[in-house]
Specification:
Strand 9 and strand 10 form a beta hairpin. This protein is 7% helix and 52% strand. The chain has 2 domains: 101 residues, Immunoglobulin-like, CATH 2.60.40.10; 80 residues, Immunoglobulin-like (Sandwich), CATH 2.60.40.3080. By secondary structure, it is mainly beta.
Length: 230
């Protein structure tokens, strides 16, 4: 019953038979015969990514992707993060959908290996196999950041232009978030050569305020603040 490697999703299948079977039966119209159990889980830790090398003294978002495999919506579900960051938030999880959970921003200051564990606590959820995820990462020493990092945000010009430097060829993702951690848009997502790059950010459709731009490579996750004033 392996699903062939399709990414796990609250609205689709996963490698675990329980959620795959539930999703398949619901698709075939058998959901009326299934008991209305509760099953919510952490699909992935979006930031900090596993095995990432984080620059010291630079803020990064703390985010998870949560799913709801229940037949009904779940409200006021508690999510916790422990380890390098300790926090608790409450989110609403629509049935059959994935939801980004944003804990806020964290600034690593101590070099070395570290980790975060994110867990979900839904009332009535007895399926514990998907209730938590762990991300192991490391923080680069300030004096070594220039040699360890693969991407560096150079400057941001009032939300209209962004410059960044790649020390090696690789895949780069550049995303814009609002203050609540909601994804506004994906500005860049693809393979780029080493060197300096300039990106024009079309900010005409954005309201005035504070935003965060996240530059992510395979081993680096960096965030810069943008202030748009009109």
């Amino acid at each position: 019953d392996n699903d062939g490697g399709i990414p796990a999703s609250a609205s689709g299948s996963s490698a675990m038979d329980a959620s795959w079977t539930t999703a398949y039966l619901a698709m075939m119209g058998c959901d009326r015969h299934i008991e209305e159990g509760v099953d919510a889980g952490i699909l992935a830790i979006l930031s900090p990514r596993r095995n990432a090398v984080l620059p010291a003294n630079q803020s990064i978002p703390i985010m998870a992707l949560a799913g709801n495999w229940s037949l009904g919506d779940l409200t006021n579900v508690m999510l916790t993060v422990s380890g390098a960051v300790v926090d608790t938030i409450y989110v609403d999880l629509p049935a059959g959908r994935n939801t980004r959970a944003f804990f806020g921003y964290w600034t690593p200051t101590t070099a070395g290996p570290d980790s975060v564990r994110m867990s979900i606590h839904a009332v009535g959820d007895t399926a514990q196999f998907n209730d938590s995820e762990v991300s192991y990462f490391s923080v680069a020493a300030s004096e070594a950041a220039g040699t360890l990092e693969t991407a560096q945000i150079r400057s941001v010009d009032n939300g209209s232009r962004l410059e960044f430097l790649l020390s090696a060829d690789g895949t780069v993702r550049l995303q814009l978030y609002d203050l609540q951690g909601r994804l506004v848009r994906t500005v860049l997502d693809g393979y780029h050569a080493a060197g300096e790059h300039q990106i024009q950010l079309d900010s005409r459709s954005l309201a005035s305020g504070v935003y965060f731009v996240q530059l992510e490579t395979k081993t680096m996750n960096q965030v810069a603040k943008i202030v748009i004033a009109r």
